[in-house]
């Protein structure tokens, strides 16, 4: 069976509806709200602030720490177990490696920048939404960044390459691949490329070309949120 018509009737390269806001958490140094489809994400940045314990301090540069958490009843499937787990730890590490390349932490020796991301509602693409929200929050906090990081998943469902898979597509009975991507706006460099599932070399190349356009659409939403934020001040 070939997947010709998407379950939610989107075009193959069409993303779910998106919206974003910056500066949504008053007590944070920077914050953001990002929604794509039914996946909702809040990001809060605290710092730079002095890093404890002191043996972790680096006199040459600061440290980025990301903390990813899904709320217990946020999932489309079963209830999420509260507290840290291997998946949240893995995605926290993925966020770190996706965001750190654009940050200039040399300006903050012996310091830490903490990014907390919470998802009260999810429908696939959570790590991508977390990265996109965190990038907005870091910019809102005034952390020096040489570029904006935008993230979205692409993939293949029964032979058809698509952008921004939803939960039903990830669970589709057939050959499915899910490829989370994070990309820099100016250089189009990848800071994240993961894959779950199987895909041919030709379809992978096609999916990555689709990702260039898809992440640009995410970037426009991020840019709009930051422009609106600073126009209010």
Question: How many angstroms does the end-to-end distance come to?
Answer: 54 Å
Q: What is the typical, i.e. mean, pLDDT?
A: 93
Helix count, DSSP H or I runs of 4 or more residues: 4
- Kindly report the spatial arrangement of strands forming the biggest sheet: 1-2-3-5-4
Poorly predicted regions: none
Describe this structure in words.
By secondary structure, the chain is of the alpha+beta class. The protein has one domain (18-231): Ribosomal Protein S5, domain 2, CATH 3.30.230. Helix content is 27%, strand content 30%. The chain contains 4 helices and 10 strands, in the order E-E-E-E-H-E-H-E-E-H-E-E-E-H. The chain has helices spanning 86-99, 126-140, 167-170, 201-231, and strands at 18-22, 30-36, 39-50, 63-70, 111-121, 149-157, 160-163, 176-184, 190-193, 196-197. The strands form 2 sheets. Strands 1-2-3-5-4 form a 5-stranded mixed beta sheet. Helix 2 runs parallel beside helix 4 (201-231). The longest helix has 31 residues, at 201-231. It is globular and about 55 Å long. The model has no long low-confidence stretch (mean pLDDT 93).
List the helices and strands and how they pair.
Elements: E1 18-22, E2 30-36, E3 39-50, E4 63-70, H1 86-99, E5 111-121, H2 126-140, E6 149-157, E7 160-163, H3 167-170, E8 176-184, E9 190-193, E10 196-197, H4 201-231
Parallel strand pairs: 4-5
Antiparallel strand pairs: 1-2, 2-3, 3-5, 6-7, 6-8, 8-9, 8-10
Helix pairs in contact: 1-2, 2-4
Question: Features of this protein?
Answer:
five-stranded mixed β-sheet, 233 residues, five-stranded antiparallel β-sheet, Ribosomal Protein S5, domain 2, globular, alpha+beta, 4 helices, single chain
